[in-house]
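Running this now, will post back.
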Amino acid sequence: MRISNVNGRLTTFVDGVTTDVAELSNGQFGPDAQSVYAQWDEFVAWGRSVGAHGGGAVDQSLLDSPAPQPRQVFGIGLNYVAHALEGPWGVPEVPAVFTKYPTCIVGARHEVRIPAPTTDWEVELVVVIGRDAHQVSAADAWSHVAGLTIGQDISERTLQRAGNVPQFGLGKSYPGFGPMGPWLVTPDEFENPDDLAISCRLNGELVQDSRTTDLVFSVSRLVEYLSAVVPLLPGDVIFTGTPSGVGAARKPPRFLQPGETLVSTIEGIGSLTTRLVAPR
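Update: finished.
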């Protein structure tokens, strides 16, 4: 099943047609996309009963994030082997965890303002939690996942690395720095959710191209690691890391410019388009 957030209303696809969930369910589920994660098991059962499966066409200019107001947003740094080797740190022994503040989350229809000339792209597989997860084992982790979507962990590198004790959170949390979409796909729709092609194009040029098998820490291991400390709540979001090819690692470095367009693609999900504009 796939769910999307069209003009602020929760939708799914039935026989390839975009369907308003609140209307089709006669109010069993409300129109707010974030609220459905608190009823995820019931929602999935309802989706099966109405034949919700597969995708369909949606105008991306109408799409908000499929998880627009998560209570917690986790980011994972250096989580692809090739990306970790782009920098001086090497492959991490444990997940490098930071926070993106929830106000940065937007969907496909939102233009993202570039606040500084060192703003960078990072295509990511994003996990949305569908069931409370605390001290969950890796073997049981996928049963707590509502689904997968595409994200961009847009990063202002100067602020991210400012000072002698860098703090990632603020530099990755300007308004619009967490675009997600175009929709959420439940794990059962993937042949293998742990092996997906992932890529990013900037103005049509391929700048990132990898597979999620290059993850240092898989989705299961991330859920296990995070939930060992923090209770993961329905609707929470995990940005799982980016492949090699970011702008800061290029020689010379390359950064995002107003007027450019990012197209982020993940196998089995689709593509997320993000338009970049000048600051106010």
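The helical segments are 21-24, 40-50, 81-84, 157-160, 168-171, 219-227. More later if anyone needs it.
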